[in-house]
UniProtKB/TrEMBL annotation:
GO molecular function, one term: DNA-3-methyladenine glycosylase activity
UniProt xrefs under InterPro entries: Alkylbase_DNA_Glycosylase/TA, DNA_glycosylase, HhH-GPD_domain
Name of the protein in its database record: DNA-3-methyladenine glycosylase II
Organism domain of life: Bacteria
């Protein structure tokens, strides 16, 4: 009897990257909410379910040493995942030119040498959740992602934690009817953008072979994909250490309070971080990992969570 994907023995490998790597910190941006069906933390292990060009894959990553990682992978996409694993762990990331003058950033960089910029090489997998997160509260966006992946994804291969799912394929995203997006609390504009991107998935996936700046520019030619969305994709799929999420509801304020003790707007943030090119996103990641959001005074009402299902 032929073994099923779930019964098959995992592909088992140990990967070393040049320089230290912290698995949890490096892969954290790939998680979309605490109940993301594609990303789980289980003690010291990070579990992820993904869709490679060659098929679905589940993988379990654990820290094996300061510069080494142990990975178990199940499913048809296992071989491709292992080929991409060094880049996923930041092997292509070069922080050597990052020398921030601000003492808070310099200290964060010193304390977290293992924070690296991941490069998944999977565009649609980062693009769909970024579109869902456009102009809405994170709680609502995470819930929409969870609903759609659970409803239209497929069970993660192998012994994945309960409830883990592989994201839908481009073909499935294209065919999700409008009322299903509505049930997931996604307004028509974002739903149309997701379908439009899924229709162009083949060409969008090829952007990983371009220079990151040109790839970001190409992403923005898709109607509904702006500067913020392109940056969010570039950070994850392209490993772009300079992709600054301009237009984020909170980011400029966080950067201002964390580094200057007062708020900034987008223009001010861009000007202040300009000397850090090509590491502006790296600087933001360091601020987030060291609790930059806690520097913002708690005042005024929180952003409302919009429920489009009532419209």
């Amino acid at each position: 009897m032929t073994a099923s994907v779930n019964d098959a023995a995992p592909v088992d490998t140990l990967v070393r990257v040049p320089g230290p790597v912290d698995v949890a910190q490096t892969l954290r941006p790939l998680q979309h909410g605490p109940r993301d069906p594609c990303h789980r933390r289980d003690g010291s292990a990070v579990w992820r379910a993904s869709r490679m060009e060659s098929g679905p894959v589940t993988y379990r990553i654990t820290q094996a040493g300061p510069d080494s990682v142990h990975c178990l992978a199940w499913g048809p996409g296992s071989g491709e995942l292992l080929d991409r694993l060094p880049a996923l762990l930041g092997a292509d990331d070069d922080p050597s030119g990052f020398a921030p003058a601000h003492p808070a950033l310099a200290e964060a960089h010193r304390r977290m040498p293992g924070l690296r910029i991941t490069r998944t090489g999977r565009v649609l997998e980062s693009l769909v959740p970024a579109i869902l997160e456009q102009r809405v509260h994170g709680i609502a966006a995470f819930a929409s992602w969870r609903h759609l992946v659970t409803r239209f994804g497929e069970p993660a291969p192998g012994p994945a934690p309960h409830g883990m799912r592989v994201p839908p394929s481009a073909e499935v995203w294209r065919r999700i009817p409008s009322w299903e997006f509505h049930r997931a609390n996604v307004d028509p504009a974002r739903a149309k953008t997701i379908v439009r991107c899924a229709q162009s998935a083949d060409s969008l996936e090829r952007l990983v072979d371009r220079d990151a700046v040109r790839a970001r520019r190409a992403l923005r030619t898709v109607p509904g994909v702006g500067v913020w969305t392109a940056a969010e994709v570039a950070q994850r799929a392209f490993g772009d250490a300079d992709a600054l999420s301009v237009g984020d509801y909170h980011l400029a304020t966080v950067v201002g309070w964390a580094l200057l003790g007062s708020p900034l707007d987008d223009a001010g943030m861009i000007e202040y971080l300009e000397p850090l090119r090509p590491h502006r996103y790296r600087a933001v990641r360091l601020l987030v990992e060291t609790g930059g959001y806690s520097a913002v005074p708690r005042r005024g009402p929180r952003t409302a969570v919009t429920d489009h299902r009532r419209h």
